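Why Tetraacyldisaccharide 4'-kinase? Reviewers of the renewal asked for a concrete example.
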Amino acid sequence: MFFLFVSSSFLLDQKLTKKKKLPGAFVISVGNLSMGGTGKTPFSIFLAKLIHKKFPDQKIIILSRGYSAKGSLRGHRVGPHSTPMEAGDEPLLLKKHLPFAEVWIGKDRYSSYIHFREELRMRENSIVILDDGFQHHVLERDVDLVLLDSSKISKERFLIPAGNLREPISSLIRADQIIFSKYESSIEKIVQNIQNKFSKEILRFSLEPDKLLSPNLQSDSPKILSGKKVYAFTGIGNPEVFFR
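Here is what the prediction returned.
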């Protein structure tokens, strides 16, 4: 009964929501089906860097909700001096890794986009990466990318509150590309089943440690930890892969 109610409510919301087009923007939505921890942030960083490498003169904008950030209510342009309270930790991380990109947050992402575009007097077209956009039906998008957590895909079957899914697996029919994050070859059979079921292009995305950063910002190779006892702490969602 709960599943039918959620599915019906979701379809009704999607049908009744009037979609808005961001002027002067090619919109790439990066989202997922579950409650976080799928690797959207590192994938968005990878995607933005890839676009910047191929099109260095192209303006890139990351448009995020900025969950729990004070700046989310009225909109906030994330800069080098923004605080976690103003911008949220993920938008700050995005800005740190993507200094060439604009990072804007706002509860009303359409209004934030219009406001900062006018404030900066932007006239050129831009590529907008819509963070956590799969369930954000208000905005039109040109490409819908959906990440599935490879470490959880065999277990995630039920909707909230019985499980961790925001919407059913069948919603993948709306995606343009399905990305298996934290990919491991052991789930290849599941990958093939989903590809056969939805006839979508499949991408496989893995996360690997790049470097260690000390409190004084000195970097080193992760290999220095080999054979040593390590105490690890994390605030990310679904941290099992990180600990492995």
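The chain has two domains: 2-205, 212-243. This is the kind of structural detail the renewal will allow us to pursue systematically.
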